[in-house]
Amino acid sequence: YRPTYDDRVGPHSTPLLVDGRLFTIGINGDFYCLDAASGAVLWEYDLVSDFGLRRPQAGYAASPIAVDDSVIVQIGGSPGIVAFSQDKGKVVWAKHDVQVSHASPILIDVDGERQLVFHLVREILAVDPEDGSRLWQLDLPDHGGDNVAFTPVWDAERGRLLLSYPYGSRYGGRALELRRSGRATAVREVWANSRFRVDHTNAVLTGRQLCASRSRGGGPAFLVCLDAASGEELWRVRHPKVNFVAAGSRLLLLDEDGVLMLARPAETGLEILAERQLLEYNAWTAPTLVGRRLYLRDQSKLIALELPAD
Question: Residues of 74-111 as b/e, b for ≥16 C-beta within 10 angstroms?
Fold first, then answer.
């Protein structure tokens, strides 16, 4: 017996398009590599049965990431992180005993070293993407939940990893400074903000400003902006949950009610330049911007918009 989600809730992870191949992970661990032009299946895995796993309680949500010729996925268990060859789907490496989160991995450069960072339930783990070897790990004692969904934001200018945890965790927002020393990476917390708690939406960094939606379960949501250097709150406004994408110095925001906004972050608030109702509740998918084309989705509709050149 294999419990499954109702197919109508759709996938939680973001598909990955690389050189004509489309990689997708469904809620129940169905991992496909498709020919993007024809839709033909090039290779596939049932992560749960093929690797002898138990499906996460809320299903798979973390997105795959492409590094060089591999596509890397957190699957959970032992080993819990696997790199597959993009062309044939062969396992390149499989390492680490981890409990999966809903946060996607990111690739960063720390003083000239590539590090693949996973924001997991029990730890933050950085590995060498070439062979999966552990570079550093920060354990999360008494974290208090398995609903970690915040994909880290890398502040390359200051060499800091920006994180947030939802309500139910002992942590809020935090910034970790990463510095290379010989072959090791020194990890130091430089600020913490217990009120900066983000659940399943994303965050965006523009200059010194870190913006995200802060919410508490079914309570009111707020748009919040922190000073990324100090962690101090610059402003907040009450607003439905929002996902972002940056477009130069401006932001495109899609709130959960389906309202698209073009805005500019300022020191004292968010300057709304334009807004339009395009979708319906609940629009929880982050906007995708490719060139001038913007893709938006709610639970029943997918739309593409052509943005003006200016």
Answer: bbbbebbbbbbebeebeebbbbbebebbbbbbbebebe
Does this model's pTM top 0.85? Answer: yes
Nearest to 98 by CA among 40, 146, 38: 146
Contacts of the segment 68-74: beta carbons below 8 A, 24+ positions apart: 68/129, 68/130, 70/129, 71/16, 71/18, 71/23, 71/33, 72/105, 72/116, 72/129, 73/25, 73/31, 73/47, 74/98, 74/100, 74/101, 74/105, 74/118, 74/120
User: CA 250, CA 235: separation in Å to the nearest integer?
Assistant: 17
Average pLDDT in the chain: 91
Q: Are 45 and 35 in contact (CB under 8 A)?
A: no
The answer to whether residue 214 scores a pLDDT higher than 80 is: yes
Q: Which DSSP helix (H) or strand (E) runs through 167?
A: none
